[in-house]
Fold each of these.
Amino acid sequence: MKLTERQRDALSELINIAFARTGAALSDLTGHRVLLSPPAVAVYQTGELRDALAKFVPGDVASIHQVFAGPVAGDALLLLNYEGAVMLTDLLTDEHKPSNYLDESAREVLTEVGNILLNACLGMFGNLLKVHVTFSVPRLHLETLDELLASITTDKTKLHYALVVYTAFQIRDSSVKGFLVIVLSVDSLDRLIQEVDAWEAQQSG
Amino acid sequence: MPGRRSRAGEFCDDANHAKPLRAETILMSATSTKQTLLNAAVLHWMHDLAAQGIVTTDSDLNVVEWNHWMEEHTGKRASDVIGNNLFELFPELTERRLDQNYKSALEGQIRLLSQALHGYLIAMPAVSGEYGYPQMLQAVRISPLSHEGRIIGTLTIIEDVTERVAREAELQAQIEERSRLLLSEKLARNEAERANRLKDEFLATISHELRNPLNAILGWTHMMQLGKLNDANMERAVETIYRNAKSQSQLIADLLDVSRIISGKLRLEARTVDLINIINAAIDSIRPAADAKGIRLQTMLDPAASSIWGDADRLQQIVWNLLTNAVKFTPQGGRIQVTLQCIDSQVEIVVTDSGVGISKEFLPYVFDRFRQADASTTRKHGGLGLGLSIVRQLVDLHGGSVSVHSEGEGKGATFSILLPVVGVISNENEAEYVHSAPADAIISFEGLPSLQGLKVLVVDDEADTRELIGEVLRECGSEVIISRSAAEALVALEEQKPDILISDLAMPDEDGYTLISKIRALPSERGGQIPAAALTAYARAEDRMRVLRSGFQFHLPKPVDSAELVTVVASLAGRAYERS
């Protein structure tokens, strides 16, 4: 399943609106100007995810994982490479000296930031689809990309798609790049794309 | 299921649960008695036993549950809280915009508040003050509570993370301390390695510099022993040996100066001194070397800048070092200019040469110890590279400053010394006697005071020194009595009635101090008042003080300069101005 140009633009625009709110929330929270760069959106089959993400995360990947359920269900993840994760927490928490590991407080911050970001994105979907989506508690994991992918593609019998949103946090002249990955069943993705089409038609009409 | 993530909420870790857990599953769907009992137990745990704060509200955010932990830590009783609006109870939540999180929860989102970004949700005093946090640091989770797809309230779980944060900070401090130690250790090692390299270079230089004159001395003395030298060559041999020994003596003096400076033992013997005399003496001593290279020496000395407070010997050493340096680095037919002038409350001595100059790269290191621009074995210019370092140290000790300027290689160099004019006391009696400085040529005995008719008693346990001093004094016309020990000297004193005593200080059995105190105890008719000079390798200021206190009139540092020796003897005999 591929997105058309228009669908991709519409989805990017929707996520961009959600991100703008999220950036503002993070700015408020940290007292620093936080910008989320305009997202780039792509759709992959879960089997193709590895190749799509491998370049970005060669080593350990920090993921904030939330499961969502309701009429649209799936897994939502924020992926950062390890260095990016450390840098992001340093930037957000005003650490004067750059550290090179994630302590418990840093993990808490990452989880909170992931939670805000994923909720903004999924909340936007919920509003768009006019459905109520519930969330699991977000969890932070540090593991290799393969381990991560294995844990989100357990049900091999069903075809799943992943909506991959590439973004970057701009904080205090530094940039931390990350991915939002939203794994959806075919049904859920179909429904989402239909709603995106409808929204797009409404905007242009 | 290995690798499978938990999809559970707070109360259940059932990995097979396809949907996120809803609190009401536990709270409201109980049917069986067993489950009712279990639910009652869970409620009891939540209310009384949980080690976290648990707060539930309805969809209007009125408090429904306020557990024991919350009562204990906020001091607010459940009965006072339940039924009231959370934001009315804690207006701070709205002020800090934390109410947004509850709004999100009512929209179905879970919200986490980390202590790093928020600190706390509801202000509570820290349980233990030992970590130095006045307020409890909290990690908070705010979740929606829903029933049949409808959100009916919120659940807030508050965890005390003060201790954990303190431990982390401690750990972080330890890591930083360790890496700081590691870094400082690394810096120290680099510094040590650098110093070691400098020392190695210096040792290579010093062994070369000390060996060079020694080779000449050994070579020529060997030829003399063989007796194969005719008169002309003999003269040349002696002249060469003398010159080389002189240069070695200077090297050692430099080294000793440096070690004294390093150990902080260098003391100035400051008096009012006449800079013009000092500069002229230094120029006189350098003139033979300059003449030999056809270098013109020009002076412009302002008499108004003459008197300052300082150590005459050291000031002369400063000027002499600068001049030696200038002569060394100025080629045949060059020019060296020395100026002395008064600038405000300072005097400035400037030595300018038309020599090889100094490259920009080396300029900052000119005054460093053991540094030479060219440390290679094929370098053209000898020396230890100590002279200028000594200059700086000595100028520092005088409270002055020294600077160097050069337009670059081949363009000459200018050394400027600024000395403060402080506390100059004009006292004619203190007019400073300036040593005749070390010179490169053999000192001529012409022009020295005559010692004719004087009887000098020389006491030294070292035969070579005895012979040398005896020879010099005889050359100037005095009669010399030699003693090998203090005991011998006392006998000679009474029997031969010498006019002057020259005594070594370090001797076996009785030393020079004992000797002079015994002599000074004698009545004057038995020689108790004999004018005496001490001869010693202990050349420090405190040694000199001790010498003078113990009864000697003069202190002659070893190695003895012939001219100085003769001058001292003459002056002890009151003949300083008689010429032979």
Amino acid sequence: MNRRARIAVFAVAAAGLTALLVASVIELPAFGHYQGAYGNQLNREAVAERHTTNVVTATVFDYRGFDTLGEEFILFAAVVGVTLLLRRHKDSEDHQEVLRKADDDRVRSDAIRVVGLLAMPALFLLGLWLVAFGLVTPGGGFQGGVLLAGSLFVVFLAAGFRPYAHLTPAHWADFAEGSGAAYLHNFLGSGTRGTLESDGSMTLLNWATAVEVTAAMVLLFSEFLESYVLPSVRPLP
Amino acid sequence: MIPLQLAALLMVGLAGTTVVLMRDPLRMAILNAVYALTLTILFLVFQSPDVALSMLVVGGIAYPIVLLAAIARVRSGGDE
Amino acid sequence: MSYLPYIVAAWLFVVGLYGIVTSRNLIHLAVCLTVTQSSTYVLLLAIGYKHRATAPIFYGVPVGSRAVDPVVQALTLTDVVVSVTVVALILALTVDIHRDAKTVDPDEIEAFRG
């Protein structure tokens, strides 16, 4: 259907949807009067049971670990999709041309190189700290993982594409992402036994998630960067 | 609710509407980062520091990278 | 006034859908999808909030004190990170479509005609 007909149908549907949404949110408990029992019980008992002070991280990696498993596989599947769409074969002419063209785009400003040199280790340490202390204060594998990938990306911003490509070789990122996902699968299977679960297993899950998220983000950034550095493209066979 | 939450909610609504109404992709990428910042502030005043950290890291690092790379790629053309 | 967070969530949802339907650029469409998705985050966190309560982190805070719901925060936090990869997948599809069709306007792409 053409554009006008589509917008007309949407206008009718949106009016109905809005009416339905507003009618249903009025029935919810008023803002600030949370009435669930599950959340209150978790707040009371999670610290004593799991010996961590961050109840949200305990929920993500222990009480609702199954949801985290599902999310990790969405992450994995999406990154596999992006790789299939955008990656060129390693020995093909396109890849060689990417590296050649990258040398022409070297960063020339000294200020950027110095700031990048100082920022990258600081961000990397901050990311590691966020992951490690996720069980005590706000943080965790997800947040720290993205920050770690960002600190590796600063290398591209400050030094150019070739140092970044050497720092994050594709086979390392592929292996890290796959092993992060596999590690989660092995452990979460035994994650529902009660008192045998101690803080230790949650720490392992935390780090496995951090490795998985870092590798996934690095893969994403690398694929998009390669397709940005090489502006003209031959269609894939 | 406290006035800070009211202000944060209204800013989120305004920023979301602006992101949708802006049609130029480059400006929209910048507005998306601003929208992520308003969401971070909202999550913070809703007493959720973990979610605020996630949104900050994602909206400041991951979204701008993938959006800007895609926009630059689409703009410079793929003609052969 | 006590339902304002839910109204804002509903508004963001409908505005995002409007952006998706009337979009002339596939990249703009992907970002409107994130606006729709973020309305669910606002709704979830608004449901879990309690008046005069603090974050569910008990470092230095006695365990019995009033805290907001941790379960909705757990759901939202993983969702935020994962939605980036889904948007990246949509953008990769857009780059691929541009390679063949030379345009990113959904109204002009032949393969989209129903």
